UniProtKB/TrEMBL annotation:
Protein name as catalogued: 3-deoxy-8-phosphooctulonate synthase
Pfam families from the UniProt entry: DAHP_synth_1
Organism: Fagus sylvatica (Beechnut)
EC code: 2.5.1.55
Reactions catalysed, as given in the entry: D-arabinose 5-phosphate + phosphoenolpyruvate + H2O = 3-deoxy-alpha-D-manno-2-octulosonate-8-phosphate + phosphate
GO terms of molecular function: 3-deoxy-8-phosphooctulonate synthase activity
A GO cellular component annotation in the UniProt record: cytoplasm
Length: 126
């Protein structure tokens, strides 16, 4: 099977579509002239941690979907959305509580986690 048969470009969306039954083969996907290598994965999660219960519910649901289509999941959510348009908007639980919640999700669902940082001092903790 050729690489072009493994991945195609969906004409209406321009996104790579993979055949989940072909996992484990050296795969390459081309998207609008760019090239990415396997593993092709899903980076998904809620924009900000609303609550521990919400993040756990989302992680479980997203992991189930990713598993059904054969894509590895990297879960992403933010402990602080400092770039809100309104200073009165909910920003998240903060770094200490947010990182504790994300660590629990990582352990409970055995998935890698990413989050964003807004200041260089946060990199050490993250």
């Amino acid at each position: 099977m050729t690489r072009s048969e493994l991945f195609t470009v969906a004409p209406s969306y321009g996104q790579g579509v993979c055949d989940p039954h072909q996992r484990g083969i050296d795969q390459v996907v081309k998207l609008k002239g760019t090239r990415a290598s396997d593993p092709f994965f899903l980076l998904a999660g809620p924009n900000v941690i609303e609550s521990e219960e919400h993040v756990f519910r989302m992680a479980k649901h997203i992991k189930n979907i990713a598993s059904k289509v054969g894509l590895p999941l990297v879960f992403k959510s933010s402990f602080d959305k400092a770039n809100r348009t309104s200073s009165k908007s909910f920003r998240g639980p903060g770094m200490v509580e947010g990182l504790q919640i994300l660590e629990k999700v990582k352990i409970a669902y055995d998935i890698p986690i990413v989050t964003d940082v807004h200041e260089t001092i946060q990199v050490i903790s993250v």
